[in-house]
Amino acid sequence: MKKQDMNRDWIATARTLSQALPYLQRYTDAIVVIKLGGHAMGSDEAMEEFARDVVLMQQVGVNPVIVHGGGPMINAMLERLDIKSEFVNGKRVTDAATVEVVEMVLSGVVNKRIVQAINGQGGKAVGLSGKDANLMVCDQTNPDLGFVGTPAEMNPKFLKDLFANDTIPVIAPLGAGRNGETFNVNGDTAAGAIAAALKADRLLLLTDVAGVKNAEGDVMTELKAQQIRDLTAEGVIAGGMIPKTETALDAIEGGVRAVVILDGRAPNACLLELFTEHGAGSLIRGD
Known about the structure:
Number of domains: 1
Radius of gyration: 19 Å
Distance between the termini: 50 Å
Number of helices: 9
Order of helices and strands: HEHEHEEHEEEHEEEHEEHHEHE
Oligomer: single chain
């Protein structure tokens, strides 16, 4: 690279940092819950980039909380162990054998990989599940689905104590039952419940799509809750986007200031959303 080109890049970088100042100030001491899934969990390079962004967020005063999924890894382990799954209305039945595998994969392999990536970038992360310190006490969602839980009681103080010690929580979506059970919780649902319990400033749902699209297929950058309801009723919001927008509405109703559905495949997606004027993905607010 020519020296002139390098100077131009440095000037652009300095300008970007200067323009970010109001947003850095805006998010000082803010709680940002990030649901990590999809492409951002795929490659080592993507994980390293995500971890670097999370550490940078904390360095500038944000309190990040990571909630992760791990569906493909669970499926691979179930297949390796030759554990067959039953489905009810398209949803996996989580029996006793399956929930043991779910806990092993989520709390073990996936969780520790994310923790290690963040620590490798100079952060101080700790791996948890919703069972730790009764962070997420669950009721059974549907007896037909087995050990699938819906968050019922939360312990946000536990996470706030970690913030006070400059620790980044990385949470596997497992919940404690009232009678000692372990419940598998949908990752988006868990992230929404945790964000609501913390009254988070932002809930970022990282997905493999660019955001919520209108009938013409264009990403809508800002929406109100009623628009989400109308688009769903009209069939514009459909398929896998419905549970994500439902999570967003529940989180906002629970006290989260705003939810953003954004493309986890985009480089530095979280930083673009928080610290630039144009943001990234679809920002959803209450009415």
